[in-house]
Amino acid sequence: MADPIAPDAVAACPLCRTAVSGPPVRTWAEYRLHDCPACGFGFCVPFKNPGAEYYARLDEMYPHESQSATDPMSEEYDACLDFFKDKEIAGLRLLDVGCGGGGFLKRARDLGFRITGVDYNAERLAAVGAELGADVFAGSIEDFARARPDERFDVITIFEVVEHLDDPGRWLDVMHSLLKPGGYFFIGLPNRERTFDPFTGPTMEWIDNPPHHLSRWTAPVLRRFAEDHAFRVLDCRSLGVPRQLLALLLRKKLQFGLATRALKVDEIAHAPAAAEAGTKPRLILALVAVKETAINAAAWALYPFFRAACSVFGWQGVILLCVAQKPA
Q: Residue 2: what pLDDT?
């Protein structure tokens, strides 16, 4: 647990080092959340990553096995690979920082990239390496750079990682040093200005709060961050809302808690064993399945109209993507 912070304490913005004092924007548990008045960066105090052991305990979110696909509710993977659809890929070296279960590495390898993955979770990396025949390294990007000082890459990606870091500028400098001149760099992270927020409710809001997520980002802040670390930004924008996320938003709107109360569980995801207890639990879970099917069908039907509304009203998606290049 982080140490309590005095309400009048002065903190330095982790990006621009401007002194930030006064009351926080809000609090979360023992953390104070501030906005830098100079650069607009949102950060928590204390600004400290909880360490690899914290993430190892979150085995439902970060499973220890390899994965064959990317998260369908995150569009940064598709956007990154789409960037290369008209480019020659064969033989290009790609480093995925925070590669997780390797779903993105698999997709990149299948397109022709020579892949390397870095992640803290050694057990999961072993599974990824065995499944993909991939070059993997357990540790931080700084550990990787020290262990392999002569490595250079054509493409470096870091998806859903920067918001966890307590020294993002140092990590960015290391990745800049590992990238070949003219190489491409991709950052994907949560959009603070998202119109629709999936991280709500007692089972979800912890995800976008400390110690899990330490920082808040907008497109201008992310662009400036990359430019300040010697990258040339090619694109920095909010990505769209995928259909699976629309289904999740509909599900949350139609979530009344009747089934969980009847089954006496916190979440339906924790309830399959209840079906073995008798006819009534099986009937409840069958009705839940019917509801899920109806919600997914509604999402399919509504999605074209929803995308049109996003364009008309300027609604922003959950994910920001920054595409940058190291000057040649």
A: 43
- Residue 265 falls inside a structural domain: yes
Residues 222, 189, single domain; the answer is yes
List beta partners, residue 12.
19
CA nearest to 155, candidates 224, 204, 98, 84: 84
pTM of the model: 0.87
pLDDT over 90 (residue 57): no
CA distance 97 to 92: 16
My answer on whether 207 and 290 are in the same domain is no
pLDDT in tens, 144-166: 999 999 999 999 999 999 999 99
Q: Is the pLDDT of residue 258 over 70?
A: no
For residues 39 and 136, state if they share a domain: no
**What is the tally of structural domains in the chain?**
3
Q: DSSP string covering 104-119, please?
A: HHHHHHHHT-EEEEEE
Burial of 34 (0-12, 13-18, 19+ CB in 10 A): buried
Residues 249 and 283 in one domain: yes
CA dist 166 and 99 (Å) reads 18
Q: Which domain holds residue 31?
A: 11-45
C-alpha Rg value of the chain to the nearest Å:
21
Q: Is the dihedral of CA 219, 42, 99, 195 positive or negative?
A: negative
Lowest mean pLDDT among 77-91, 158-172, 284-298: 284-298
Q: Which pLDDT band, with edges at 50, 70 and 90, does 276 fall under?
A: low
pLDDT at residue 3 in the model: 44
Provide the token pair at 207.
């995800």
Q: What residues pair up with 159 in beta bridges, in sequence order? A: 188
End-to-end CA separation in angstroms for the chain? 45
Choose between 10 and 244: higher pLDDT: 244
Are 27 and 46 in contact by the 8 Å Cβ rule? The answer is: no
Structure tokens at 57: 């305990």
Domain membership flag for residue 5: no
The reply to whether 257 and 164 lie within a common domain is no
